[in-house]
Amino acid sequence: MEDGRYAVSIKGVVFNEPDRVILLLNERQEWELPGGRIERGESPAECVVREFKEELDIAISPAVLLDTYLFEVIPRKHVFIVTYGCQLAGVFCPKISEEHLQACTFDVNVLPVNLPEGYRNSILTWHSRRTRA
């Protein structure tokens, strides 16, 4: 049983093409947004930049806070998720780290079934905001 303290994970939504979002396949066979746990002394924006560099070896720039919510990763294990809408800050030539099984881009209109709802909502929100701008 949890004691009310939760890990904090900062995630980023990045489109490498107008309608294609970058996702990573984790060990639970779920697609997820790139990102990870915030470190002491690090801002959320610094965290998401670092995590994209570590997980995909790509540079990004956080643009806007999209969402925050408590996510039940596995039964009775929750993580506080913060999602940012981000922009690529260089060439898209990802090199996947050992943290994930696969990296792939998906059309925003055909997102995988095994993508948690919170991530899906953040993707659709950022896509909508970008296409209106």
From TrEMBL:
Q: Which cofactor does it need?
A: Mg(2+)
Which named protein is this? NUDIX domain-containing protein
PROSITE patterns on file: NUDIX (PS51462), NUDIX_BOX (PS00893)
What GO MF annotations does this protein's record show?
A: hydrolase activity
Residue ranges constituting the Nudix hydrolase domain according to the UniProt record = 5-128
Q: Which family does it belong to?
A: Belongs to the Nudix hydrolase family.
Q: Which Pfam families match?
A: NUDIX
* Keywords assigned: Hydrolase
The reply on keyword Transmembrane is no
SUPFAM superfamilies registered for this protein in UniProt: Nudix
